[in-house]
Amino acid sequence: MSLIFSAIVPNNPKIFLENSQDNSSVTAIANSIQELEGELYFMKPDTILLLTEHGSVVPEAINVNIESPILADGFKNGLTVDVGFITQLKNVINATAQSNLVTVVAESTIPQEIITPLSLLLKHLPETRVVIFSMANFSLVKHQEFGEILRQLCLETNKRMAVIASGHLAKNSTKENALDTLCLNFLKNKELEKILHINTEVIEKSKSDLMRPLATLIGTIAKMNLEPKILSYEHLDNENQLVANFTLK
């Protein structure tokens, strides 16, 4: 089929706070995610690819979790993994000189930072299959190249695919910081490739856990006629939280 949905979503469990109505930042984030969740429900993907910096067992490679089902709060029957997609991916990678790019792990439990975005987006699609990719200690460009491999697989499959980059921008900072300013400007101006070349020192200083997932997402949606749309950008729990999606022009 093809890639039918792509977005950026926070991973902070505090978005679930019961008193969210008293916190304008939580409310703005929750409203944006609710909008995304509605769009995702309408598109009804067969599989969601979740890109995260959390849950890595082998940091020298991109980890993909093949355990199924994965135990997760909010999912009565657990999360069902698309093992077929993982098999296709490994076959493609093994046919190249990059066999150490991805390693398969089997973890029956996952961090809350992975459960949160899936719980938020799959509220009405709990049976949707997932593939969880935990990023490696590679450069942003290397992650973008991996995203290009994912894009090719998405184009070749007969499934409806969605890809989600999850994480926060700068931590321990106000909204006025170098990383966030650059990322938001590049998104607004549709200059996604420039995100890959942001100074490493700026990224490390920000303590963001979104940049490698975002770089992979950029590779996955490259050459597609998509329009970035920022739905919300809020400061919550000492982290800058971005919700955005990419829609056909």
UniProtKB/TrEMBL annotation:
Pfam family name, one: LigB
Molecular functions per Gene Ontology: ferrous iron binding; oxidoreductase activity, acting on single donors with incorporation of molecular oxygen, incorporation of two atoms of oxygen
InterPro entries in the record: Xdiol_dOase_suB
Boundaries of every Extradiol ring-cleavage dioxygenase class III enzyme subunit B domain copy: 26-238
Protein name (database record): Extradiol ring-cleavage dioxygenase class III enzyme subunit B domain-containing protein
Organism: Candidatus Kerfeldbacteria bacterium RIFOXYB2_FULL_38_14
